[in-house]
Amino acid sequence: MIDMYLLYFLMIFAAVSAVGVVTFRNIFHGAICLGAMLLGIAGIYLIMGAEFVFAVQVLVYVGGILTLILFAIMLTSKIADRSILQANEQKTVSFLISAITLFVLIYAIVKTPFTTVQGPFIVVDTARIGKSLFLNNILPFEVISILLLAALVGAIVLARKDIKK
Amino acid sequence: MIAIQELLIFNSVIFAIGIYGALTRRNTIGILMSIELIFNSACLNFIVFGKYLYPSLLSGDIFVLFIITVAAAEVAVALALLLCIYRNSKNIFIEKISLMRG
Asked: What is the CATH code of the structural domain delimited by A1-80+119-124?
């Protein structure tokens, strides 16, 4: 029962932080809100019994991606100034588009009969994830490691200063 | 255990907020952050469907791990590109980056 209230609290927390991400005038505050939202989603993972995904979310998203975003904001610091307008003039149209998308999604969710399994969430232990990752999903795992290597090399090549000049 | 519909509706709300942010932000980093919102709602959707419909399988968790990896790679490359653009044009507002417009 307490899990349920915690889940509701985390959902509201994450939703409010998400609104902060897209509306804050100062992009730095938006990035902090993004961190709060990521932590809220991580808590939802933990309550739903996906422990390893929770750990990866905190480590990679909050520890890695958010830090990268904060670095980029600080390196382009003049852009993050308060006086500069951060939203463009298509606010109404964008709001309409997202509202229509939300309406269609909620309509589909409410109309679809789901045959769900009842009972508490099953906790997935990390050993099972490791076995599945290295036995059944070994090919995607290797492909994604090549992708990461390519992204690493590409990011370094793009971000370094030109030495030849 | 709360109903699956509530969690799915919550994910849709996050998704819609992400779309709104991606369409309205002028700062390219803001657009990236909104896209992260969309990624997270999709990830949570995978976990929700895995837990509620097929609790004995691990596909949801594995999929989310791969999505997070690809998102990390994407953000690294995107921010490197941004720094490159900022060095050359001193600007990262999306309407000013019209170098490749015909």
From this structure: 1.20.120.1200
